[in-house]
Design goal:
The chain has helices at 10-18, 23-31, 72-78, 127-130, 166-169, 260-277; strands at residues 61-63, 67-69, 81-84, 86-90, 93-102, 118-125, 138-143, 154-162, 172-179, 190-196, 201-207, 212-214, 217-223, 227-232, 234-239, 242-246, 254-258. Helices cover 18% and strands 37% of the residues. The strands form 4 sheets. A 6-stranded antiparallel β-barrel has the order 5-6-9-8-7-10. Strands 1-2-14-13-12 form a 5-stranded antiparallel beta sheet, with helices on one face. Among the domains are: 81-90 and 200-277, conserved putative lor/sdh protein from methanococcus maripaludis s2 fold; 93-196, Efflux pump adaptor protein, beta barrel domain (Elongation Factor Tu (Ef-tu), domain 3, Beta Barrel). The chain is of the alpha+beta class. The chain is elongated.
Length: 279
């Protein structure tokens, strides 16, 4: 599952604070003079125009239709890194969470094809996705959340694909079976699973850290050499730390791989400030 971004970051405060440093103090230090005294010891007045603000010290701005404009100071404070979109040969995967409805310790019902020593879990999926799956397909299963140290993934398989409720709920039910001889997964326990959806194919992909999952949808920040523009992407699946997608941005496009969350929080702050300033 992809978590939504809600928590503030310390990097944002550093970014806003960095451009507040006054250049007159640095200029005075270089000349050897005291900040408020002339060479003769007389008080002097430093005019703002005498020390124009450098572009590198300007505060972040959100430019309509273009994106975030950041100074070098802000980029350094946020630790922004970019990587190009690269086309990878990947196996499409279905990943998700399922809940155990029959534990391995339960006695198998005579009318059921379930087996003792095997746990069974259920999850509802899109009917179009269900069409790409087959009973018996391999499934990798692990405990949801923080697994026990050294706990390996468990090999399982698709036990059944039930489409009877599609006209009512709009979803098909996927049943997964996996061995559980120690009865580690009681009824109600949650598992995380992955299963292949088809053959290897070429997909444009970005690192998982580049994906920005928000209430507004999935995005990446595209770097055009000056602006960081939040750009929507159509996620296909995730595999081995990569997020495969279809459509734009094209291969070779630089996207933010480190600092995307901080850019989003900064954008939200600037948008909120612009809204309050309009009243």
């Amino acid at each position: 599952m992809i978590p939504l971004l809600t928590a503030p970051r310390k990097g944002i405060a550093c970014a806003f604070g960095s451009w507040l440093i006054l250049s007159p103090l640095a200029a005075a230090a270089e000349s050897g003079d005291s900040p408020g005294l002339s060479s003769s010891g007389e008080p002097k007045i430093v005019l703002e125009e005498a020390h124009p603000k450098k572009e590198a010290e300007e505060p972040p701005r959100l430019v309509a239709g273009k994106g975030l404009l950041l100074s070098e100071v802000t980029r350094t404070a946020l630790g922004i890194k970019t990587v190009p979109v690269i086309v990878h040969n990947l196996t499409p995967l279905l990943s998700g969470s399922a809940q155990v409805y029959q534990a391995a310790a339960e006695r198998a019902r005579p009318s059921s094809s379930t087996r003792p020593g095997v746990a069974y879990a259920t999850v509802f999926i899109d009917p179009k996705t269900a069409e790409k799956l087959k009973v018996g397909n391999p499934v990798h299963v692990r405990r949801k959340g923080q697994p026990a140290p050294g706990e390996p993934e468990r090999p399982g398989k698709i036990f059944q694909i039930d489409r009877q409720l599609v006209p009512v709920t709009g979803q098909a039910e996927l049943l997964i079976e996996f061995p559980d001889p120690a009865n580690d997964f009681p009824v109600g326990a949650w598992i995380e699973f992955t299963t292949p959806l088809g053959e290897d194919a070429s997909y444009p992909a970005v690192p998982q850290s580049a994906l920005l999952a928000t209430p507004e949808g999935n995005f990446v920040y595209v770097w055009d050499g000056r602006f960081y523009r939040r750009t929507p992407i159509a996620v296909a699946f995730s595999s081995d730390g990569l997020v495969a997608f279809v459509g734009d941005p094209p291969a070779g496009t630089p996207v933010v791989s480190r600092g995307a969350e901080d850019l989003w929080l900064l954008e939200l702050s600037l948008r909120q400030g612009a809204t309050q300033g309009s009243y």
